[in-house]
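hiii, so i know i said id send this last week but things got crazy w the move. better late than never?? heres the sequnce for the chain we talked about at the cafe, plus the structure i predicted for it. fair warning i was half asleep when i ran it
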Amino acid sequence: MRSCPRLALLCALLPWLLRAAAPPRPAQPLPRRDPHDPARGADFDRVYSGVVSLSTENIYSFNYTSQPGQVNAVRVYVNSSSENLDYPVLVVVRQQKGVLSWQVPLLFQGLYQRTYNYQEVSRTLCPSEATNETGPLEQLVFVDVASMAPLGAQYKLLVTKIKHFQLQTNVAFHFTASPSQPQYFLYKFPDDVDSVIIKVQSEMAYPCSVVSVQNIMKKDFPGEQFFVVFVIKPEDYACGGSFFIQGKENQTWNLQRTKNLKVTIVPSIKGSVYVKSILLSSLIFFSFYLGCLLIAFVHYIRFQRKSIDGSFGSSDGSENMVASHPIAAGTPEGSNYGAIEESSSSPGRQMSSSDGGQTCQSDTDSSVEESDFDTMPDIESDKNVIRTKMFLYLSDLSRKDRRIVSKKYKIYFWNIITIAVFYALPVIQLVITYQTVANVTGNQDICYYNFLCAHPLGVLSAFNNILSNLGHVLLGFLFLLIVLRRDILHRRALEAKDIFAMEYGIPKHFGVFYAMGIALMMEGVLSACYHVCPNYSNFQFDTSFMYMIAGLCMLKLYQTRHPDINASAYAAYASFAAVITLTVLGVVFGKNDLWFWVIFSAIHILVSLALSTQIYYMGRFKIDLGIFRRAAMVFYTDFVHQCSRPLYMDRMVLLIVGNLVNWSFALFGLVYRPRDFASYMLGIFICNLLLYLAFYIIMKLRSSEKLLPIPLFCIVATALLWAASLYFFFQNLSSWEGTPAESREKNRECILLDFFDDHDIWHFLSATALFFSFLVLLTLDDDLDVVRRDQIPVF
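okay and structure toks below
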C-alpha cells in the first residue's frame, strides 16, 4: 500500500517524459484562437460592432504573414457615437515590438482652452519588415477595446491592410487626413537616387497641416528609407488662419477638418546641374571684366594715336576751347554778377592757380589739415558771399586745397571697411548658428526658403540663393579696379602738372567711389548671409547696405558739383545708422501701432524740410533748433511779404518736387501702414536718388553739356536692368512677415537652368543694374574734362 503514491506519481509524469523524448516537430503557424477565448480571432476589412462597459472588455486578434522585401502596414479605425468625455472608449493595440493607445472621442486642446472632440479615430501601426535572413514572419496584432462607462459605450472597429503604403518616385499619391486621422507613408531610395524633394499640394489652404520626415538623413537610416508623416492641426492660427469661436462645449468635428492632399517625391537635381550653374554664373560676370579690358585697351590705343599726332592737349590753356558759356542763355544781357569775368578774377581763381605747385604732392601728407585753409581771416564771410551768388560755377565751390578735400573723402572708404568688418563677422556667426539649428532639429519652419527651388549643397539648405549673390561681389570688385585705374591716371596727370587735371573738369575725388564699390561687395556678402536662413530676425542684414548704397550715390551726385560743402563721412554714416535704427523699430512696431507712424511721418517731413533748406542755401543756413523759425521768416519775407521770385529757381523746383514726393511717402505710410517697413524705407531712398539723378541729367542737358557714348549707354542699360530686376523682385516667393505656412503658399518652381528662381534673377539683374548705376555716376561728366571749372555751372 505504501507504493501506491509512487506509482501514481510515475503515471502522472509518464506522458510528459514521452513528449520530452519525442523528436522535435517543425514550427507550425500560429493557430486561430478559439472564439470563446478572451481574445477573439478577427478578419481584416471587416467591421466589428460592440458595446463595452465597466464589466465588459473585447479583445480582437489579427494575424498575417510578412514576406521578405514586402512592407505590410495595418491601419486601425475606431468609431464611437458616445460624446461622454468622462467615460470614453479606450483602445489599446499591442504588437510584437510596441503598444499604441488612444481614446474615443479624441480630445484636442486648442488655443485659449478651446477643446475639439473627434468621434472617429484611426492610426497606422508601425510595420515590421521581413528580411531574407529571417524568412517569412508571422505577425500578430491584438486590439483591446474597453470603457469604464457603467451603462456601456458603443463602438465600431475596422482593421485593414494598407495597399499603397510605400510611395514611388515621380508618382503622385492622393489621400485624406484629419486631426484624428493622421497619415504616414514609407519611401525607399532607389539605387540611383541619393536625395529627393518631397512636394505636398492641396487645393485648399486650410485646415492647417504639418508635414514631417522621420530619419531625414539617409546616413542615419541604414535601410535607405524614411517615413513621411502628415498631421492636420485642430486650429488654423499656426498657419495664419483666423480663430474660430465654437458654439458649444464638447463640439464634435468629425467631417469639418478633413483635407485632401497630394504627395509627390521627385529626385533632386544632379551634380552636373550644380557645376553648370556655377560655371555659367561665373562666366557671365567675368565677361564684364573682359569687356572693361577691351574698352580700356581701345582708350589706350586712341590715347597713343593722339599723342603721336600731337593733337592731344593742343588747345591747352586756350580760353576759346569751349564754344559757348554753358548757362549764358539764362543770364541777363547786362548782368555780369557771377559771370566768368568776375569769377576768373575772383579769389577762387587766384587760389586755383596758386595751388598748381601743391597738387603734385602726395594726398597722404599728414601735415595737410583742413584748418590750413579755414584759418584765413575772411574765409567765413568769403563763403557767404560766394555761395549765395545767383549764378554759381564750379570754381566757386572747389576753393579748398585738393589734398585736404581728397583726404576728407577717403574717410568714407576707410570707415565703410571698418563698418563692414564689425558688421559682417557677427552676422556670419549668427547665420552659421541658424543653419546648424535647422540641420540638427530638422525644423523647416525656422528659415523662410522658396522650398520649391531650394537646392542644398553641404550644410547649406539653399545654395542657389547664395550663389546668385556672386554678381555683387565680382562687379563690386570690378568697379573698384575701374576707380583705381582712374585714380592712378589722375595722380600721374597731377604729378606731370597737367593743367587739364588741375583746372579743368570736375575735381576728381575717389573716396566715395571706393566706398560705393565696397558697399556693393558687402551687399552681396550680407545678402548671401541673409539667404542662408532668411527670417524675421535677420532681415536687416542686407537691407542695411542697400540704404548705404543709395545714400552714398546721392552724396556722390551732390559732391560732383559741390566738392567743398559735402557732408563729412562721420555725419553721413551716423545718418545711415539712424535710418537703420528707424527701420528696425518700424519692423517691430510699425505693423499695428499708429503712434509709431505718427512719429515717423513727423520726423520724415521735418528732416526733408531741414535738408531742403540746407541744400537751397548751399550749406550757409545753420542747422540747429532755430532752423525752422529762420526758414519760416525767410519764406514770409521773400514770398509772402514781397512776393519776389525765388533766387535759385532750379534748386527751388527740385526741392519742391522732392518734398512733395517725401510728404506723399509720409502720408501713404500714415494711412496704409505697410507691413514691409524695410522695403518701404528702401523705396524712399531709391525714389529720392532717382529724382535727384533725373534732375541732374536734365540740368546738364539744359546747360548745353553733352552725354558721351559710354555714360549714355550706361544710363539706358541702368534703366532697362532696373525695370527688369524690379519685375522679378516683386514676385514674392517667400515672406517672413507671415507664418511659415503662408510663406510656402508663395513658393514657385525654378525658372532658370532648373536651379535659379525669380529671386535669384533679381540678384543677378540688380547687381548688374547697380554696377551700371555706379558707372553712370563715374562717367556722367567726362565731357567736362576739357571745360574750365569757372565755366561749369553748379546746380
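btw Residues 1-36, 245-251, 311-381 have pLDDT under 50 and may be disordered. thought thatd interest u
miss u guys!!
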